[in-house]
Amino acid sequence: CFVSRDGRQAVICEGPHDGDKCLALWDLEQGRLVRFLSAEKGKGTKEYDGDDTADFGARVEQPGSQAFTFSTDGKLAAINVNEIVRIWELASGRLLHEVEVGRFHPHTFRFADERQIVGKINGGVVIQAIDAPTGEQRKLMGPVGYESYGGAVRDGTFTLVSVGEVFSLSL
Fold first, then answer.
1. For burial by CB atoms within 10 Å, which of 20, 102, 119, 129 has the most?
2. Other CB atoms closer than 10 Å to residue 1's CB: what's the count?
3. 22, β-bridge pairs
């Protein structure tokens, strides 16, 4: 379960314990399933009304879906599974982009604001940014010859922690 920063919505991986999951958007204030997120680029999904013929949307393979983030305004969401970042517009469930980037470290994969996703790619220190509305990528740092252990985004700065050092990048 992934909860938005304001605590009003969540995306939950729903499905059988040992199978693929679907990504479901929930309104936590009303306690209801809003919709499933689309599996097809450019296509939205209808609001869930209890009908079993609903579009059950994107299938997510487990494990590997721990890297998930909501935009700061709660309008977009992104997940990183199998080296692909999928970005959705939550109001429609529409899949905006599928961006091949690598596997982000789940503790560093974050929206820095309402449109920019940043994070550290696993297997070395490469800090990558993705513009969510356009899907465009840019490298902010790396690769360098050491590993890092975590990072965070706050007030337009991406902070990365490594053994004995802390790095801060202005976004």
1. 119
2. 10
3. 14, 59
Q: Using CB atoms within 10 A of its CB, is residue 124 exposed (0-12), middle (13-18) or buried (19+)?
A: middle
Q: How many residues does the chain have?
A: 171
**Containing H/E element for 80?**
strand 76-81
- Residue range 119-143, pLDDT digits in tens: 888 766 678 889 999 999 988 877 7
Residues 6+ apart with CB under 8 A from 103: 64, 67, 80, 82, 83, 121, 122, 123
Tokens describing residue 22: 């679907």
Count Cα neighbours of 37 within 13 Å in the Cβ-side half-sphere: 27
Alpha-carbon Rg for the chain, nearest whole angstrom, is 16
What is the CB-side half-sphere exposure of residue 45 using CA atoms within 13 A?
Answer: 28
At 28-46, the pLDDT tens digits run 999 999 998 988 889 888 8
Alpha carbon distances (Å) from 106 to 49, 92, 122? 32, 25, 9
Report the C-alpha gap between 55 and 171 in whole angstroms: 37
Distance (Å, rounded) from C-alpha 110 to C-alpha 99? 15
Q: How far, in Å, CA of 7 to CA of 19, rounded?
A: 28
